[in-house]
């Protein structure tokens, strides 16, 4: 008996909107949440813009003890998990059957950096002063704490795992979570990802390889996937959590099924830690494998949520991958990148994009690609520029690409698909 | 029918070990078998400002000869370990990646602390000299996915890849994730983990765990299951395994070392070692069920051995609950007492030791321990000859994860006798 995976809850913390409702309003409006960095003084950095969350942990419902203990990215995840769990209304009868899979690329680097500055006297001491460290610094060394905090919120006692495969972590975490259910290792899994990378060290490391946009004088239009004048991604932050549930389990309790997670696969390009080929072979292969698992033909795809980071290389790589996957039908499938509006939150974005895909299936609306004024001649697909589009969707593909050469793909389908 | 019973469970065909007790299984196994003590005062930096001064360092390891100079400068020491271990594992398996179908050979690693020494150097550059002094490799050396990416690129592995940071138990969970890929069509996976948590700042982060031994005497620093248990000695190192689809291994005439017969994972909360007894029991029971076995089949147990009085008591209780009256008769051991606890790589090193134990029919001792305070048959002194068919490996994380893995001798009657 095949076990299938339903999505029965969603929670999102994103730039421009805390909560699923505000998030969906923003990304269907075509407005952008990219702006000058306010989380630290970016003077002296090449890229001084980001998509920041206007996040007040007290207003979001966290206790003072939680706020002290949790790094910003853990706070995001806690709030997103709470929202998703409220929506799903799962009454846990067996906590050993509830799991958690959370993704993050850089984890606790913000706290690591803050405490480094304190313990090293701003970089003056190699032998840092351990006495100046926060009591929660140990949580920052490993993002394992991310999944643990989410598990504690719902009393999960099943498999609890953090996935940290860089910028595909958000897709991979949901994929790992879905597999726990398919393989019978859990009945309910909170799956998602979180990231708060807007700190000096992370901004500096992307400066060093010129991966981020330096359009500092026009931040609202800086994230320009597939546009001729794009110059890199805009760093973002945020979190999303999906409640995944074995389909029969969801149906028996009469839960509203928002979407189904039907396929997941990863492949690697074995090419370069940061570079991409122009052919997109491995991304197409990952997508094909995910579709095979879902028993869906490429011709059935109604929408592709692209990685669409807005770097010169990525957008061409990805366009080539979609041509390879879809053949002659490539021009008929809407493709869009919500990173144009909420930036690229590294390990979190894959889960945020899957939340967008689930909402697209629910509402029959495809979010647009903002700032796509003049398409790159080598990016020749239908990227849904500027304006959201209504269309009946049955099958949605979301892809991601990350440092290390990793390519991931997840297939979501409309609730009730046989 | 369980996968192990039908002969379809993944098999281990290659081991690569870079441990404080030796480079390669040719050094590692004799050291483990003979209970060699490889703990020593920290030598990579001056540890005297810190309460923890004893650790397991891979003192003889230099990247030259293992890692191309071009890659050495782009990577942290933890990736050097992983690359070296991957090379050794492929050689041990007599498997050339080009002989495996493209897209069917992947890599899955576990990490706890990432490339933290590289990170401390770059973050120092940032805070001492400014953002433009952060080098281009910071973005690919520090993050947790560095090892999977570099191994994939170094060996042309374009199959499914990922990175698990499930706490320290992640080493076993990475094997489970690799097994999931093999069941979905992959032919071979390099799977394992590496850690190099010895720069001053990384140690500073670990101090907050309040689980590390503060003894300055290497001979008594890490004494799990004794009255003197006062924390563990941290370690660096890594292990990679070649794990193959059983059919693929059989067809190429590979020498099978062990069958990965079952896995289970649970979560019982941060700093709640009392609850880990139930957590380990549930994980072990699930792993045995997947293997088509019962607790009566367990011939030896490789222990987590946290060396915290509560954690040790919980692990002993888990064994009592699992094995019943056999708990005092089944040989159990913790070779890591001789070389330290290597975070996410610790469990992978345990798996390597367990595979070697199956191969040699010997349960290695727990070095430095004479007087177990629990009613367990803890092997001490010298290795004990045992006709091993089934070995259970237990692992816990400091943030509440409990994992169990069942390994079987390749010629065990119900594991297919490949």
UniProtKB/TrEMBL annotation, chain A:
Keywords per UniProt: Acyltransferase, Transferase
GO cellular component entries: cytosol
SMART domains: PKS_KS
PROSITE patterns the record matches: KS3_1, KS3_2
InterPro entries: Beta-ketoacyl_synthase (IPR000794), Ketoacyl_synth_AS (IPR018201), Ketoacyl_synth_C (IPR014031), Ketoacyl_synth_N (IPR014030), PKS_Beta-ketoAc_synthase_dom (IPR020841), Thiolase-like (IPR016039)
Example GO molecular function: 3-oxoacyl-[acyl-carrier-protein] synthase activity
The keyword NADP is annotated on this UniProt entry: no
CDD domains: KAS_I_II (cd00834)
Domain Ketosynthase family 3 (KS3): 2-414
GO biological process: fatty acid elongation
Family: Belongs to the thiolase-like superfamily. Beta-ketoacyl-ACP synthases family.
Name of the protein this chain belongs to: Minimal PKS ketosynthase (KS/KS alpha)
From TrEMBL, chain B:
Acyltransferase is among the record's keywords: yes
This protein's record includes keyword Acyltransferase: yes
Keywords: Acyltransferase, Transferase
Alphabetical GO biological process terms: fatty acid biosynthetic process
GO MF: 3-oxoacyl-[acyl-carrier-protein] synthase activity
Pfam families in alphabetical order: ketoacyl-synt (PF00109), Ketoacyl-synt_C (PF02801)
UniProt domain Ketosynthase family 3 (KS3): residue ranges: 7-409
Entry coiled-coil feature ranges: none
InterPro entries: Beta-ketoacyl_synthase, Ketoacyl_synth_C, Ketoacyl_synth_N, PKS_Beta-ketoAc_synthase_dom, Thiolase-like
Residues annotated as signal peptide: none
Family: Belongs to the thiolase-like superfamily. Beta-ketoacyl-ACP synthases family.
PANTHER family: POLYKETIDE BETA-KETOACYL SYNTHASE 2-RELATED, POLYKETIDE SYNTHASE-RELATED
Annotated protein name in UniProt: Minimal PKS chain-length factor (CLF/KS beta)
